[in-house]
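Comment thread on ticket #2218

A.B. wrote:
> Attaching the input chain for the structure job we discussed in standup.
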Amino acid sequence: EGRYRAGVDRLAGLLKGHFGASHFPVVAVGETGDALGYGSDIHAALASENCMGYYFVHSSGESYKRADAYGKPELLAAIAKAKRAGRRVVVVAVGGGVNGNAMGMIAALTGSDFVEVPTTLMHYNDATTSAKKAFSLVVNGQILSKNILGTFYLPQLVFCISEVFLSLSSCSVHAAVGEAAKTMSMLGKASSAQGHLDFHNILGASEFASDFTRVIHTAPGFEELILFLQETLKLKDAVIATGRALRDARGGGATAIEIAALEQQRQSLLEKLRREFHQELSEEARHQVMEFLTVINEEVIRAKAMFLAYSDPFEKYRALLFEYAHTLGHGVEAFMNGLYQHAGAAGIDYSEAFRLHGQCVGMAVTWAGEMSRELGHLEGSGYLVHQSLVYLFNRFGGFDFLPLRKLCDELDVSKEEFCEGVLRVVRRDNKRGYCRCADGSSVDQLVRDRPGCLVRSADPSAELRYLVEVSEDSQRRVLEKAFDGEYDRVLMCSPIPSHVDAAGTLSLIHRGDMLSCGSGAHLTHDSPPCAAQSANALDALICSLYEATNADGRKVRVRTADLSTPDFTSADLSEESSSTSSSPPTPPDHGVPTRRPKAAWCSTFSKQLPRSGEEQASSESVLRESAFLQRPDAVLEEPSIPYFHLSESSETSSCMLVRELLQKTPLPKGADAFSSLHIVSAAEATAASEARILFQSAQDVGKKASLYSWPALRQDDLDGEYEAFFGITSDMILNGADRASLLVFIAGGADGGEQVAIAAILGMLPFRGVQVAFLSRGREYIDPLGMLQTASGLFEYNAEQPERMGRRPVAAVFGPLPDRVFSRPMAPWLPLKPEPIAEEKPAPFKIGAMELPMVTYEGRYRAGVDRLAGLLKGHFGASHFPVVAVGETGDALGYGSDIHAALASENCMGYYFVHSSGESYKRADAYGKPELLAAIAKAKRAGRRVVVVAVGGGVNGNAMGMIAALTGSDFVEVPTTLMHYNDATTSAKKAFSLVVNGQILSKNILGTFYLPQLVFCISEVFLSLSSCSVHAAVGEAAKTMSMLGKASSAQGHLDFHNILGASEFASDFTRVIHTAPGFEELILFLQETLKLKDAVIATGRALRDARGGGATAIEIAALEQQRQSLLEKLRREFHQELSEEARHQVMEFLTVINEEVIRAKAMFLAYSDPFEKYRALLFEYAHTLGHGVEAFMNGLYQHAGAAGIDYSEAFRLHGQCVGMAVTW
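C.D. wrote:
> Ran it. Output below, let me know if you need it in another format.
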């Protein structure tokens, strides 16, 4: 709000400070803004900061809001050159709303940063308060459809220098008021108690609820501003003329002296313009103008934020309220823009008839009010208030139609041609499709009773209930009346008689009558305060109207949505409550506890406790007959896939093909329709072309769709295949794919098994499996259940493999051949089940009725390592290729290298892989390293059996399980943490998270199901745990205790009576409770030996550096010996220094927590829900907030590490976050 020049310098400093001195600013401005110097001043200020960029001047006006007017070759070339040079491109849009919209599109298309510098009120409070950026569809100067080609893209800053408003046109100010009147009409007084009721379901609305009566009271300031602009119009025209002469001089070879003289002349004229405001206008008038500018901006911005902040940021649902009066408004604007083109070509002056977007909307507000009255929705005081919101601001005729009528007459455009021209645009309106719309009708919005209440659609399937069907006859009638000047009115507070509606002293006077009687014919700064009197009377009428509404007996329950202000929101909030309950909605919780009926544990799956003899007998019957006691031999389905012959109609019609794919592809369990299509084309031009057609057809039939392309790769491009798998599936997640999405893979001409393999693996990854429809053009069947390998031979999918538990992502194949069904039995499951020895303790466990050997080796560590190496050689053969994978900490402790060395001593030579540790590294690129993939591919080509041995925690097991699944390798897990042993390994789920810049966006979102052949745990490794790790295991156990209770009891039998085969593994968590002393002894031991463990890790890291840094064999052996000695000392601390009772308590804690968590998992996974999609989702209890806080804190740990801040005390593992979330 300071002086203009200081504002320009401030902006330049901000941009340099935020984007850096080397950023490349693209300052874009329209011809008028350039003539006024607004763009060149900012460009020059940035240049003075050594931020050299590109200055772009474009044509101005709505008819130029099109792609070709902004995407100029020289602009695109400048941006491309800057990007190639590694400079950060910042698009700075200086001007009105058209400029902001269009340059926002350029920024979005090029991925540039974006800053908006509004020079009009409409740009500041309307265009910038929306993420929508768009071009219109314009042909030969005629706007066919407004804002139809665009996207959502946020600016990093909106910076407005208030002095630029002194050079506005009166049209521009009227346009801002027109949009404000629209918002007042549809929103009413949202900050009032009645407004709270009106908008009770708008999430977080209370934070920004607006009060538009404040705008009404600024009418005097509006009139003072218009008068100032009219009085200084010649001065402003002189500024613009000088600016244009300056532009011509710069481009026409003028001398530096001539250019400097013109610059000085323009500067002098602008200073004079500003002095006219600051010195010549009275203090009261200046105050009124500033109050008008401040209030209209504040209230429009608050109104937009009410909806966009949390409820509807993409303006697709509730925020479409802001489209009120835009149906006819856009129509008349588009039609008149065409007339302006014709008038200009014919040399006709159309300046009096010129109307900006907001002026057209303001006129359309009065037309919407008239349609609402005609249809019986609006009458009396409600109608008067609605119309007055425009007419209060029409004393200067900014919303009159008469000048437009005169232009139509000059161009020989009849009333009928005008109405039909407007309705042609209306028929292309972008709100069509939200509700049923018959021929001869369009989608519009109407008001009922008063501002703030909109008519609701009678169409129960309407996507938005306040978008209604309105006949073209109604629209045509108001357009005809507008053409005849019926709505050219002014709100007056006077006793002048009128044949129109009046309330008290308020009258809607025809402007012709007002001018003929001399009232307001020549407004000046000294005119009587008619606007203030009218505003006061209108405010009083609004208050009485709201009081009447409150007293009319209607009751609306206030839900909590309006009162809550969340940090994160869903972009897809349903229009109505999703609850099917007949009970009333819950009122806001103000801290008063409410009594709720008691329910038994897990009531979704359980019977209530018996309370009578009859109920007791019924319970016993349930016990005898329940699934709880059954023990089936098999529960997994044998894989089968249908092949569907494509019908002739589908061969010729892509829309029919889409429908056939959606109808015939089997749905995932629990879904009644596919939610979206994700179309992937093979790396061939014909497949890509077919994919684009299918994509468009999917949208034509109303199905959300996204398009992807498999890249053209060399046959040996292992890394390219791996990156493509995770690049495409990550994009699918970011594009809104969910478990009910359908992936359509369009094969190329030679659609061999390689392409089916790609489709299967792509479908395997999102959410651990989405349905895939494979579109084949081949003339021979390809068995999608056989061994499928990609071109490189590294990645494979074999549905017969028992590790995959019968999963087959390809749900259906479509092609030219006759229908058939492919089916195969799963191969026998032959896991590595050791013959028991004294030191080993097996833990009974099954997934999908298949036994998973889980063994704890309770002898000494070195013997356990040798035992494991012998088991692997005996089961997989001496020629197998072990890939021993371990995290950095496990490597420093020697756990990975010891196993690798033991296998080497058995002549089982393989590959040793050390990866980064931690949840934020559980991502595809951190594990799919080129050297690892190359080693596995080489072993496979040599015919060796690859066995992935994952040594470490749950992240290691999850991620290396993914590598095994992708490459079809055998898999063995060697847990070194409690969580890995009793939680991660007791699940077939293996997955990567979606991680961007160290921030976990979604945990375990890209994965599959893949069973290990053995879980082998050496108990002595738990002596090197961190206390965090033990707390994490307890946190997960507490979650399981909380949701499962005492499942082995009679009541537990009732609670889980329908869990198939649960009795075989039913757990008793009271056993865990009694091991609390052992938990405390273990934590104390780990704290007391922490320095010793740290010394082991430090020595291990030094050893790793020595091996990679050219140290001698003697130096390496010395470090190995030092680490071994420290580990032996650590183990002696436990076996010799700890009391026998304490050792017993620790071992009891470790044994019991492992046994009970494993049994609890087996209760559900053994037979009932091996894929953890239904009943086993009970184990997700406390994971919603647990995952949330874990992901957020992982981001903070990254920032802390980068800033050199010690976060060890704050560090929490997954299970600790879950434990906290249990209490929440």
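A.B. wrote:
> Thanks. Noting for the ticket: Residues 496-504, 549-613 have pLDDT under 50 and may be disordered.
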